[in-house]
Design goal:
The protein starts with 12 loop residues before the first helix and ends in a 6-residue tail after the last strand. The protein has helices at residues 13-25, 36-47, 62-67, 69-76, 90-99, 127-133, 152-170, 177-181; strands at 29-33, 55-58, 79-81, 105-108, 112-114, 119-123, 138-144, 148-149, 196-200, 209-214. It has a single domain (9-214), classed as NagB/RpiA/CoA transferase-like (Rossmann fold, 3-Layer(aba) Sandwich). By secondary structure, the chain is α/β, with parallel strands linked by helices. A hairpin with a 4-residue loop joins strand 5 (112-114) and strand 6. 36% of the residues lie in helices and 20% in strands.
């Protein structure tokens, strides 16, 4: 069973260090942040200067957005590929999401992670899960500690029963059954968000995926 979101709170330093070691054992590069402001500092001072990132893009992540790093990247990038530009048609947004798979740097979050350091994600279009799996030279994930779950079963339960319905609700114009009830109905809606699962066991190559684990409840 997943832990109630309201009972998570912050983790003790020992717990954070254990998670850091678990992620690093799985070949992720892991940084610990006290809060979203600290995550911004770590990204701009410790990560970004040490990678060559002329072309930058991103996928949807409320946690990443909350840190303010996207505005920084817009200013720093030689080419910034905006995958959610409201001025673009949906077709052009999809085209940009395809181009984003060739970016030097890709920013996003994760739906859940396990005590074994596995990343669990569920996508509608698949651009986020695709980028995690293959393409961008560097991927940076911004993850709040509220995304922690004990194992794969509880991670998938968290995503399907908690995160997915809330993600559908926050997207304007969605009319899936979960928007109306707040619960997953395993629907056949043309707007269904739950189409592609990924479980990322390890980063390949080593260090390609960089994790900023934020000791704060952020995102969905």
């Amino acid at each position: 069973m997943i832990i109630s979101e309201s009972k998570r709170g912050q983790l003790e330093n020992a717990e954070l260090l254990t998670l850091k070691k678990v992620f690093e054992k799985n070949n992720f590069e892991c940084y610990l942040a006290k809060n979203k402001e600290d995550a911004y500092r770590i990204f701009t001072l410790d990560i970004f200067p040490n990678i060559s990132a002329d072309v930058i893009s991103y996928a949807d992540s409320q946690t990443m957005m909350a840190t303010g790093v996207l505005d920084f990247c817009r200013e720093q990038a030689s080419v910034f590929i905006d995958t959610f530009d409201p001025k673009l048609s949906f077709r052009d947004q999809i085209y940009n999401r395809k181009k984003a798979l060739l970016a030097d740097l890709f920013l996003t979050g994760t739906n859940a992670f396990t005590a074994k350091g596995q990343l669990v994600n569920l996508d509608m279009v698949g651009n986020r899960t695709a980028a995690l799996t293959f393409g961008p030279r560097n991927v940076v994930l911004f993850i709040g500690v509220n995304k922690q779950t004990p194992d794969l079963d509880s991670a998938m339960e968290r995503v399907q029963k908690y995160a997915a319905p809330r993600n559908a609700t926050r997207h304007q114009g969605f009319n899936t059954p979960c928007v109306k009830t707040g619960e997953c109905h395993d629907c056949n809606s043309p707007q269904r968000l739950c189409n592609t699962w990924t479980i990322t066991e390890k980063s390949f190559p080593k260090g390609r995926i960089k994790i900023i684990l934020i000791n704060q409840e952020l995102g969905i």
